[in-house]
Amino acid sequence: MEFAFTQEQAELRREARSFLESNADAPLADLRELGWLGVSVPEERGGGGLSFVDEAILFEEAGRALYSGPFLTTAILLPALPHVDDNAWSVELDGLVPHLGEVDRVLREDMTAVAAEGETLDTVDETRPLGRLSAGEHGGAQDDFEPVRLRLLAALAVEAVGVAQKALELGVEYVSAREQFGKKIGTYQAVSHPLADTYVETELARSLAYWAAWCVAEDDEQAPVAVASAKSFCAETAVAACERSIQVHGGIGFTWEHVLHRYYKRAQWIDAFGGHAAVQRQVVAAHLLD
Amino acid sequence: MDLRDTPEEAAFRAELRAWIESNLSDEIRRGRFEEAGRDWSRKLHEAGYAGLTWPKEYGGASAPYSHQAIFLEEMARAEAPPHVGVIGLGMAGPTIIAHGTNPQKQKHLEKILSTEEIWCQGFSEPDAGSDLSAVRTTARQEGDHFIVDGQKVWSSFAHIADWCILVTRSEPDSERHAGLTYMLVDMHAPGVDVRPLRQITGEAEFNEIFFTNVNVPVENVVGEIGGGWQVAMTTLLHERGTLGFALTAGLESQIRKLIALAKDKAATEVQRDAIAREWIGLQAVRYTNYRSLTTLMKTGIPGPEGSGAKLWWSEANQRVTKLALELLGPEAQLLGANGNRQPGYWQHQQLRSRGNTIEAGTSEILRNIIAERVLGLPRSR
User: Fold this and answer.
1) Closest chain B C-alpha to A119 CA, distance in angstroms
2) Of A28, A38, A44, B333, whose CB count within 10 A is highest?
3) In degrees to the nearest 10, what's the CA dihedral of B126, B127, B133, B138?
4) What is the least distance, in Å, from the CA of B313 to any CA of chain A?
5) Which of A133, A162, A193 lies at the terminal end of a domain, its last residue?
6) pTM (2 decimals)?
7) Is A198 within a domain?
8) A205 CA to chain B: closest CA distance, Å?
9) What CATH number labels B7-84?
10) Cβ distance A204 to B284 under 8 Å?
11) Distance from C-alpha of A151 to C-alpha of A52, rounded to nearest angstrom
């Protein structure tokens, strides 16, 4: 049993963080240039030959930086192709397609790939708009789609950890500097204890997210329940982390100019897409009780 | 990252599981903790499972921490009673190994492992709960011994203990962390009086200990006279450090029982959701413990992520036991409620769980520790 990142993985994280910090809106082509697309696809199929756990590190960092391009949807799709291609991809789930206007191709639940044609809808999270394909109903979900769905939900769980971590750090930074009644507000337990709860939940979420990513990477039989567990817990953790961070920021946290609302909206996007936490828990409950 | 047992860990687990299978009888499982527990603990020692992580020179197995984690998991899976010497094995022993003199090591360590000596902890006092630095139990030196006077509370096992790890104030006008002395006290010495403290469950798991003119030889001091605070911190580090796996193993066993109950009772959608939530939380703590354990094995220090384990566990255990009562329905007030496989089990567990957020660091103290030491927030006091 070894639950830790390798030196190489720590290095990959450092690189990703440093690039994304100043390039949160970089075009997908820049990420392709860095070798971030197809990381977990075998080399003979044009990929990086690494594991889904390595790829997960990139999803976490993309979440932390609130990267705006169709990186996650493309990356989770490439392993389903015979060979890595140069398209930007998305995937249709419950009739909704993330980044529809920014991608070339879309994979549907019936495993057909169609051109990304359709209508982009007004979406709460402006950095990750949703759209609907103009193509009619698909032919019904195929079993082959399941690995794609699991990679997608696992990637969202990991991304949620990046969001939660950033919301926590913003909160800690603010309450360590802001003074009221002659004291740093972080000294008040009514302020510090919610942040302590966020820390605990974020670490728990991180463990679940990488457990799920590892199960996906290893094609472990626990993958479906691990992914459902991680998606539900991590999304709720990210939402709560943002809510607590907004609260301890006071008025400034409620403004459009502060970055927090963007994290909050991403956290809620993650929770909704592919099924809210309570829907994921139904999968877990069925596994335990039926 | 590899979340499977290594071949070596798998072999240890298989061997342990087989040993438990052939040694854990129903009498031991159901017997009274004090007597059956001692027999069981002796068996564990004879098989080499007591003090797994203790160095070989002190009678341990010098095993990696992963073995201790596997041991706790398998014990919980088999519903085996805990070792009766938990305070000795987990707190007194490691403290003596770290700070004790050679004669102290020779006198006590082997007997802790064999359960010949049962230990208790004399830290908390009526006016020193979360704030250990407020202790008032005095130790007055007279030549080659100390005279100890005072009162301790919340002392588990004191009614069966042979020895106590005691924190005293040895410098009369000292304050806070200064002037404390850590000593090993013979519970059979004249002037030591143990009174059981009846809890809300009706049982007396904890005790008050009164010390009246108790004579403690100077050679029983651990660390420096007046340097007791640091020694006490070693004890608490061990209490909190190795706790995660034991707690998770206990919670896993509770949740397994809860699932069985829910199947008997045809849980509602809301209850199914709540059960799934608790199971997910359990996996989260379990894998967080593994992360912390990996860091511990690589660096010798557990990772900070483990600091939330006790906090999460205590609140989860409160929710899980309440959920069980809800599943029992209106009969939940009956000790022999239909579906209660052991009469009174869930009722007792639920009441007992209220102590979980108080003992071994209240939730408020644990949140302060995380806020200040992990997140680096300004100190609240």
Assistant:
1) 36
2) A38
3) -70
4) 11
5) A133
6) 0.94
7) yes
8) 7
9) 1.10.540.10
10) yes
11) 8
Grade residue B381 by pLDDT with cuts at 50, 70 and 90: low
Model pLDDT, residue B29: 81
Confidence at residue B239, expressed as pLDDT on a 0 to 100 scale: 64
Shortest CA distance from A193: residue in chain B? B367
Helix (H) or strand (E) holding B76: helix B65-77
The distance of Cα B69 from the centroid of its chain, to the nearest Å, equals 14
β-pairing, B163-169 with B119-122? Answer: parallel
Residue of B nearest to A54 (CA): B1
Question: Which tens digits make up the pLDDT trace of A40-87?
Answer: 999 999 999 999 999 999 999 999 999 999 999 999 999 999 999 999
A125 in the same domain as A155: no
Interface probe, candidates B251, B377, B380, B381, chain A, greatest A C-beta count within 10 A: B377
* Cα–Cα distance, B72 to B91 (Å, whole number): 16
- Contact residues on chain B for A189, CB-CB shorter than 8 A: 364, 367-368, 371, 380
Asked if the C-beta of A210 comes within 8 angstroms of chain B's C-beta atoms, the answer is: yes
Q: A285, A268, A270: which is closest to A225 by C-alpha?
A: A285
Do residues A180 and A221 both lie within one domain?
Answer: yes
With an 8 Å Cβ cutoff, is A214 touching chain B?
yes
Tokens of residue B289, six digits: 């413990």
Number of compact structural domains in chain A: 2
For residue A11, what are the domain limits? 7-133
What residue type is assigned to position B230 of the chain? Q
As a whole number, mean pLDDT of residues B338-366 equals: 91
Q: Give the domain-ending residue among A103, A133, A163.
A: A133
Task: Name chain A contacts of B280, Cβ cutoff 8 Å.
Answer: 208, 229, 232-233, 281, 284
Residues A247-287 have pLDDT tens digits of 999 999 999 999 999 999 999 999 999 999 999 999 999 99
Superfamily of domain B242-374: Butyryl-CoA Dehydrogenase, subunit A, domain 3 (1.20.140.10)
Return the percentage of chain B with pLDDT > 70, whole number. Answer: 98
For tokens 């006279």, the residue is B225
What residues in B contact A229, CB-CB < 8 Å?
A: 279-280, 283-284
Q: Who among B1, B279, B280 is closest to A5 (CB)?
A: B1
CA dihedral B255, B258, B263, B266 (to 10 degrees): -130
Residue A141 forms part of a structural domain? no
Question: Domain spanning B119-226 has what CATH number?
Answer: 2.40.110.10
With CB atoms and an 8 Å threshold, state whether A188 touches B380: yes
CB contact under 8 A, B367 and A196: yes
Query: B239 an active-site residue?
Result: yes
- Whether the CB of A190 is below 8 Å from some CB of chain B: the reply is no
Residue A117 in 3-state DSSP? Answer: coil
Backbone angles phi, psi at B215, to 5 degrees: -90, 120
In a domain, A154, yes or no: yes
